[in-house]
């Protein structure tokens, strides 16, 4: 896994999930998760809404440009270079965070944008973004926790299987702790469910 591209770090389960992606796709996952954390930090409650919009506008402007036009020196942008063909999905996450802050949709647009970003990540990994990927993403994000049973995801999407599985464990109130979480991640990583 590459060095962190921001002051924000992935959680231990997220770091382990990223490691279960094939090496060629780990940076895609890490960049996606770090971007969402960076945007969440920019849009956190208590900040001036105008300042939030200015911060988000900077990211929106970047994703409206090709990666060749992105400024140098921002490690997270460098990590997101492989997303060039799917920049619209990243822009959607920015728009979703803005809608959550200044809109009244309760985060619905952000949820849809995150699901679309996971589908874009699947396409970048050479996987069809089918209903199983969409459902797994929705369950991970807590959008549709009672959906139909998701089939085992392809190996390239193993991080999604882990993130989904851990979110469902938490939603079900299963006892956690570092050792139990590690064992659950190990099972999800090896079996995909």
From TrEMBL:
Q: Identify this protein by name.
A: Phytoene synthase
Query: Which organism is this entry from?
Result: Novosphingobium sediminis
